[in-house]
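FORM 12-B: Structure-to-Sequence Request
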C-alpha cells in the first residue's frame, strides 16, 4: 500500500476542493450521477488535462471506499476521460531556436569568443552538420572516412534504427583538423574525437555546447540549430523533402523505410555546402594549425 506524505494528501484534497466540492460537496454520494462528474470536469479537461485525470481518479477512489462500506452500489466516476471528453492531443514543446537571420551573427561571435577550445569546435560542428549533440559527443575518429568527406554514425549511437551518414564540407574539415591539433596538444591517444578521459562519460560534457550558446542568447538551445537548418532548407525551396528529412536523421515509417534505402548522400552534399556558406558568411573556422605556424614564425 502506498503511504502518502502530507504534501500529496494536500494536493489530493486541493483538487477536490477546487473542482468537485463547489458543486457537488453538499450532494449525497448516492445522488451524484455520472453526467454530474462529466459536467464539472469538462472545463478542467480543456485547460488542465493531467489535473482532470488525477481528480477523476480521486473521486473514483472515494466511491470505491463507499462501495466497500455499502453506501453506494455503483461508482459513477468509473468511466474513460477520452470517451467522455474526446481525445487530447499533447502539445509538444519545441526546442528554442535562434531566428534564422541571426545565425550568421552567432557564427561570427562563435569564431572569436573566449571559451574552451573543444567546446567551440563541437558547437561549430553541430551547427554546420545539424547533428544531435549526443551523436557528436561520442563520435570516434574511425567514423570519418580517410578523406574526411563523410561522417558515419553507427546505428547504436543514433535515434534512428539504422546508421546515418553526413556529407562533410570544407568548413567541417577545418574543424576536424583543429580537433586533430587539440589531440596532439593533449596527447591522450583516445579514439574519441571529443574525448575527456577524466570525465564520467569519457567525453565532453552534454551541456558544454548548450552553455556556450546560452552565453550568446539565454533563450536558445543547441538542439534549436537543427530547427534553424530545417527552416533555412525549406525557405530555399530547392531541396526535396526526403533530402531535408534524411539530413536531420528523422526516422521514416517502417513501410517507407523498407522501400527507400538510399540515404541520398550525394544529393545532400550541395545542400550542406550551401548551408555552411550561409552560416559562415565566408568566415571559415579559425585554423589552429595556421595559428600555431604563425606563432612559430614569430
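FORM 12-B RESPONSE
SEQUENCE OUT:
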Amino acid at each position: 500500500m502506498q503511504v502518502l506524505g502530507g504534501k500529496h494528501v494536500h494536493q489530493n484534497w486541493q483538487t477536490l476542493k477546487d473542482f468537485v466540492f463547489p458543486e457537488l460537496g453538499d450532494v449525497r454520494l448516492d445522488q451524484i450521477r455520472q453526467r454530474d462528474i462529466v459536467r464539472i470536469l469538462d472545463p478542467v479537461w480543456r485547460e488542465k488535462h493531467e489535473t482532470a485525470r488525477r481528480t477523476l481518479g480521486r473521486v473514483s477512489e472515494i466511491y470505491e471506499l463507499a462501495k466497500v462500506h455499502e453506501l453506494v452500489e455503483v461508482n459513477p466516476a468509473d468511466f474513460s476521460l477520452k470517451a467522455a471528453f474526446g481525445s487530447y492531443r499533447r502539445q509538444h514543446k519545441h526546442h528554442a531556436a535562434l531566428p534564422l537571420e541571426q545565425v550568421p551573427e552567432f557564427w561570427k561571435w562563435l569564431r572569436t569568443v573566449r571559451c574552451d577550445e573543444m567546446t567551440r569546435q563541437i558547437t561549430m560542428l553541430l551547427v554546420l552538420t545539424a547533428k544531435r549533440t549526443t551523436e557528436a559527443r561520442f563520435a570516434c575518429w574511425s567514423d570519418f572516412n580517410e578523406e574526411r568527406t563523410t561522417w558515419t554514425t553507427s546505428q547504436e549511437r543514433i535515434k534512428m534504427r539504422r546508421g546515418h551518414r553526413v556529407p562533410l564540407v570544407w568548413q567541417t574539415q577545418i574543424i576536424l583538423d583543429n580537433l586533430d591539433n587539440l589531440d596532439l596538444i593533449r596527447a591522450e591517444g583516445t579514439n574519441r574525437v571529443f574525448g575527456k578521459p577524466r570525465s564520467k562519460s569519457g567525453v565532453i560534457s552534454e551541456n558544454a555546447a548548450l552553455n556556450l550558446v546560452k552565453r550568446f542568447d539565454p533563450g536558445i538551445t543547441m538542439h534549436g540549430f537543427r530547427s534553424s537548418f530545417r527552416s533555412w532548407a525549406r525557405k530555399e525551396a530547392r531541396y526535396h523533402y526526403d533530402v531535408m528529412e534524411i539530413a536531420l536523421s528523422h526516422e521514416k515509417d517502417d513501410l517507407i523505410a523498407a522501400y527507400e534505402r538510399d540515404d541520398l548522400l550525394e544529393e545532400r552534399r550541395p545542400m550542406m555546402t550551401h548551408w555552411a556558406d550561409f552560416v559562415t558568411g565566408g568566415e571559415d573556422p579559425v585554423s589552429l594549425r595556421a595559428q600555431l605556424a604563425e606563432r612559430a614564425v614569430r
